[in-house]
Amino acid sequence: MHASAISERVVVGLIAGILVGLTGIGGGMVLLPLLISILGVPPIVAVGSDAVINCVTKIGAGSVHWLRGNVNLRLTLNLAYGSIPGAFLGVLLLSGIHAHYGAAVNHILQVVISVLLIVISIAYMRKRRPPVLQMNPEGIRNTKVSLGIPLIGFVAGILVGVTSIGSGSIILLSLFVFYGYPPATIVGTDIVHAVLLAGLTGFLQFGFGNVDLALVGYVLMGSIPGGLLGAHLTKYLPSERFKKVLCSILVVVGIRMLWVSVVHVK
User: What is the C-alpha separation between 251 and 62, in angstroms, rounded?
Assistant: First the structure.
């Protein structure tokens, strides 16, 4: 591989890491369109490689949140009860689509990823805090989470298995909107759960040959220091404003990817 190609992958990882560290938006949301649109990675390989990258990059942050007591183990397990079978189902679904449609799976994935970029980005921009009453921890313990939270995990697991998007974005948004856990607990739990979900998904994707280990390695060379730099920049830059700007850009990117996919069909 030429040095220019290697440097492009490292730079893409660096950009994605900075944006994720600065805004907190899920890595798949930011990295996937860069891999597909900038580097020209086939969507099915981008999905599998992104899952492995997400797992590795979140191990450090998950460890920090665990040590700080920001992880609710019961909530993590309830999410995993749904997300683990969901991930298996999602990867098997993707494998079935690949086996049936062959290379056309890349076009299908590009359409699905485009729609998710648009919908999730708009949801991020429009999200509202739950009512104050829900923020009462005692009230949370009495809510019926036995079905709702595993269901959130199951939906996220399927999405991660098919697209690698959802381990952070879908779960974070759902817990923020529908449940009253403290923000630090939501973030810490979501990251630790994402390590489990992305790790399993990455392992399954690797088994189906959808992971480019060289791509993973080069992107991590940029994304890990980029994430640390982005997190450091939150002390000096308005992260919420950058989050809205980034979401707006992702909506435009999603629309462009969707348009290209439609034109390609014609």
Answer: 28
User: How many separate domains does the chain show?
Assistant: 1
Range of the domain at 64: 3-265
Tens digits of residue pLDDT in 91-112? 999 999 999 999 899 999 999 9
b/e for 139-166, b at 16 or more Cβ within 10 A? ebeeeebeeebbbbbbbbbbbbbbbbbb
Residue whose structure tokens are 């399954």:
204
Cβ neighbours of residue 54 closer than 8 Å, sequence gap 6 or more: 26, 27, 28, 31, 164, 167, 168, 194, 198, 202
Per the CB < 8 A criterion, the answer to whether 211 and 52 are in contact is yes
Report pLDDT digits (tens) over 193-204. 988 999 999 999
Residue 132: the pLDDT is 43
Where do we find the tokens 């591989």? 1
Give 182's contacts (C-beta < 8 A, 6+ positions apart). 135, 137
Please check the confidence at residue 171 and state whether its pLDDT lies above 70: yes
Distance (Å) of CA 190 to CA 50, 87, 129, 148, 197: 17, 16, 17, 15, 10
Quick one: 32 exposed, middle or buried, by C-beta within 10 A (0-12, 13-18, 19+)? buried
